[in-house]
Amino acid sequence: MPELVRVDDRGHVRVVTFDRPAARNAFNVAMYRAAADALASARDDEAVRAVVLTGTGTAFSAGQDLNEMKAFASGTAESDGASGFPVLLDIVQSFPKPLLAAVNGFAVGLGFTILAHCDLVVVADEARFKVPFTELGVPAEAGSTFLFPMRMGWQRAARVLFTSEWLTASEVVSAGLAIERCPGDRVLDRTLELAEQIASLSPDSVQAIKRLMVEAQLDQVVAARRREEAAFAELLPKLAGEAG
Fold first, then answer.
1. If DSSP states are collapsed to H, E and C, what string results for 58-115?
2. How confident is the model over 119-128, as pLDDT tens digits?
3. pTM greater than the 0.70 cutoff
């Protein structure tokens, strides 16, 4: 079985790499679980002071595996979706240590919305971003109906969420979902520089600050996810009809 997620320690920084390049690092249930396990391990390892997420190949992540999503909608999936997406999101939204992302390429769906849960994001100049919810006929996900307006402002978030348009690296930086952009061959190194700078400081202080920042918005994120999941359940019969 493919590894799906690779883990590599660089001193006190752990790099978690989405490694399903043939599917542009799209998440199926197995990859959700592997990523959740990698983050849980980093959370519980006292030697790890910061985590960097990145992808293999030309994509950071293409988001949800659409073939598997169609199988869920039609009731033919072999796995339980409840043990995938929500398990990863639960640990991401409450992750107690600095969580950074080195966006090496395309970031679509969850590959984009997960960035709103990261503390620092560096994007490659050539990276492109999209949430294709309205194209697919599904509601938004991952608390993005709260986090995107909070980070971007209402009108930018509405345009991103309503239109399914592509965004450039510059647009994502100016929207407040990334701290900077750089050449693709530098994006991981630059993110590691930031992570190592953080990891060199007091972990107790850093994690206390992270906890206070997360707790200030956690109730709203949880509530937004609950509403999004209810909306998805309402739309699922329509998706099943289209899949049939």
1. CEEECCECHHHHHHHHHCCCCCCHHHCHHHHHHHHHCCCCCEEEEECCEEECHHHHHH
2. 999 999 999 9
3. yes
